[in-house]
Amino acid sequence: MTLLQVMAADNAADVRVRTTDTAEIGAELSKHGIAFSRWEVLPDAATTDSDTLLAHYAPRIAELNASGRYEHIDIARIHPDDDNPDWPATAAGARTKFLDEHRHAEDEVRFFAAGRGCFYLHIDDAVLATVCEAGDLLSVPAGTLHWFDMGPRPDFVAIRFFEEADGWIGDFTGDKISAGFPTLDELLA
Ligand SMILES: [Fe+2]
Q1: HSE-CB of 48 using CA atoms within 13 angstroms
Q2: How far is the CA of 172 from the centre of ligand 1 (A)?
Q3: 79 a known binding residue?
Q4: Is 0.70 topped by the overall pTM?
Q5: Per-residue pLDDT tens for 108-130?
Q6: How many whole angstroms from 34 Cα to the centroid of ligand 1?
Q7: Annotation-wise, does 32 bind a ligand?
């Protein structure tokens, strides 16, 4: 379920907007300069190999990258693997990586082909928690304070667009603001 929940930055209990209407979500995010759109969902994307996924979305990718600004386009995927004793640690490590507030030198552009994750955009006096699901494309502008929660059982396939190969590297603010906000699972509960 794609979801937008807008909260006061100094009080997560002060919920200003909560909607699952994707048109409303797009309109609300655009007020803050955040691009949100929907691409068609490929059934079985979670089990489709990366080359096939990139080929399927090639026309969409070409349109998004008409200017050629994204020189590095790849796929990030993580799925629960309960047969692997190392998986809980891998999952926790992946989740922790971007759970603290940070910003990037370039736009963070993600298309969710499968699964879900939540971007928390800290803009002025608000935090916009945006749960992205299969079919959602979100672009976090360069310099925008944000964090990302993939939940305790990370499960997603996302196409990533980078200008520089190290564009994913975060500049962490050291602010523990994210601890005061509902997690991905709490938002969806
Ligand atoms: Fe980020």
Answers
A1: 19
A2: 9
A3: no
A4: yes
A5: 999 999 999 999 999 999 999 99
A6: 14
A7: no
Per-residue pLDDT, 167? 82
Look at the domain 3-188 and name its fold.
Jelly Rolls (2.60.120)
The Å distance, Cα 26 to ligand 1 centre, comes to 19
Q: What is the pLDDT of residues 80-109, one digit of tens each?
A: 999 999 999 999 999 999 999 999 999 999
User: pLDDT digits over 75-88, tens only?
Assistant: 999 999 999 999 99
Domain ranges of the chain: 3-188
Per-residue model confidence (pLDDT) at position 168: 85
**Strand runs labelled E in the chain:** 3-8, 11-19, 35-38, 72-78, 102-103, 108-123, 126-133, 136-140, 145-149, 156-162, 171-172
pLDDT at site 166: 86
**Ligand 1 centroid to 163 CA: how many Å?**
14
What separation in Å is there between the alpha carbon of 109 and the centre of ligand 1? 9
Indicate the burial class of 184 (C-beta count within 10 angstroms; 0-12, 13-18, 19 or more): buried
Q: 47: exposed, middle or buried (C-beta count within 10 Å: 0-12, 13-18, 19+)?
A: exposed
Question: Is 102 flagged in the annotation as binding?
Answer: yes
- Is 186 marked as a binding-site residue? no
Q: Which residues neighbour ligand 1 (ion) by CB within 5 Å? A: 108
